[in-house]
Write a structure and sequence with these properties.
Layout (H helix, E strand, L loop, with lengths): L1 E6 L6 H14 L3 E5 L5 H10 L4 E5 L8 E5 L3 E9 L2 E8 L5 E7 L4 H12 L9 E6 L9 E3 L9 H10 L2 E2 L2 E3 L4 E2 L8 E3 L2 E5 L1 H6 L4 E4 L10 E4 L21 H10 L12 H38 L5 H28 L1
Parallel strand pairs: 1-2, 7-8, 11-15
Antiparallel strand pairs: 1-16, 2-4, 3-4, 5-6, 6-7, 8-14, 9-13, 10-14, 12-13, 15-16
Helix pairs in contact: 1-8, 3-4, 6-7, 7-8
């Protein structure tokens, strides 16, 4: 099970939509939670269908601010228990597995609203033994290690958050990736980076999913990094069987390979058995695919790794323009990839 949570800071931008589509494809997401969508249900439903998610629930924005969206695949049984502008509280089970509670949050950024939010969140589960997981933007830095930049760490900022954790017996799930999940996108002395997005769980939820881990993805089309909860841990990639890709039909080289391998071989007066021809064609197409298309995938991964390297450390002025160029190059590659998918169905 993969659950994506992302503060998108508005879902009206094409680059954000492309980035979201690639995140859903990359992590094979079962549930997607988006905060600060700044869009209403009618528009978000169109985006949901593009992401191939089967159902959606929405909290409309207040004017041009806020807004929440929660999408799920058909195999996910999800019921909304209650909601407001800052959270959606649900019960969840996947493929008839044991039910648990999932609360998706966008904590208020204003100090005057934090106490009320965390106190209300604490009333959602009366049973301290409940299987409970909380995921999203906490808008809270809890230690000096989770922040760097020109503004100092303020211990008072985490007061209500820490009291909520103690009352609810929750703990943060280990994360892998960038140390910070939000940046003001500036360089050198103007830069501020903070860890704001996280996943919390009760011990009972942890017993249900002992291998759970959180992956912090790269920041591309928002000032927040997407976080992905992998409830069953990071799965090893299985060896792929040969599969003919529909996109190959558009390539003349593909047709030539098939024609060549099914034609009579030199020095022979027959075409060979069906099994022999099929094996030869499969091997040739596999080699051709790696040479022609996999190079682009490697190039894309290389760009992602470069972005990660820059985002994991202080952003120097000389790196700021480089980071912008890398993001632009990556979104352009995504655009080409998405266009190819649309052409080939």
């Amino acid at each position: 099970m993969a659950v994506l949570a992302w503060n998108v800071r508005g879902l009206g931008n094409r680059d954000t939509i492309r980035a979201l589509k690639n995140l859903c494809f990359k992590h094979k997401t079962d549930i997607v939670f988006l905060s600060e969508t700044k869009q209403k249900k009618k528009y978000l439903e169109k985006i949901r269908m593009k992401m191939k998610m089967d159902n959606g629930f929405y909290v409309d924005p207040n004017g041009i601010a806020e807004g929440l969206a929660l999408w799920r695949k058909s195999e996910v049984k999800l019921s909304v228990i209650q909601h407001d502008k800052n959270f959606i509280d649900t019960s969840i089970s996947i493929n008839s597995e044991e039910e648990w509670f999932g609360t998706f949050i966008y904590a208020p950024p204003y100090e005057s609203e934090k106490q009320e939010f965390w106190e209300r969140l604490g009333t959602l589960r009366a049973d301290i033994n409940a299987k409970w997981c909380i995921m999203g933007d906490t808008n809270t830095v809890i230690s000096p290690n989770e922040k760097y930049g020109r503004s100092p760490f303020d211990q008072n900022n985490a007061k209500w958050y820490n009291e909520f954790l103690e009352r609810s017996y929750l703990m943060e799930i280990q994360s892998k990736g960038g140390a910070c999940t939000w940046s003001n996108q500036r360089s050198e002395e103007e830069e501020i980076c903070e860890k704001l997005d996280r996943v919390l769980s009760s011990p009972e939820w942890g017993f249900l999913f002992p291998k759970a881990i959180v992956v912090v993805d790269i920041v591309v089309a928002s000032d927040h990094a997407p976080i992905v909860l992998l409830a069953n841990g990071i799965m090893k990639k299985a060896k792929k069987d040969f599969k003919f890709e529909s996109g190959w039909i558009l390539e003349n080289e593909c047709a030539n390979i098939v024609k060549e391998e099914w034609s009579p071989q030199e020095g022979s007066n027959h075409r060979g058995t069906f099994r022999i021809n099929l094996r030869r064609t499969r091997v040739k197409l596999w080699k051709w695919n790696r040479e022609k298309f996999i190079k682009n995938k490697v190039s894309s991964d290389d760009i992602v790794n470069k972005i990660k390297a820059l985002q994991d450390g202080p952003l120097l002025t000389k790196d700021a323009e480089k980071l912008r160029d890398l993001k632009a190059e990556l979104t352009k590659m995504w655009e080409i990839g998405n266009r190819d998918q649309e052409l080939t169905g």
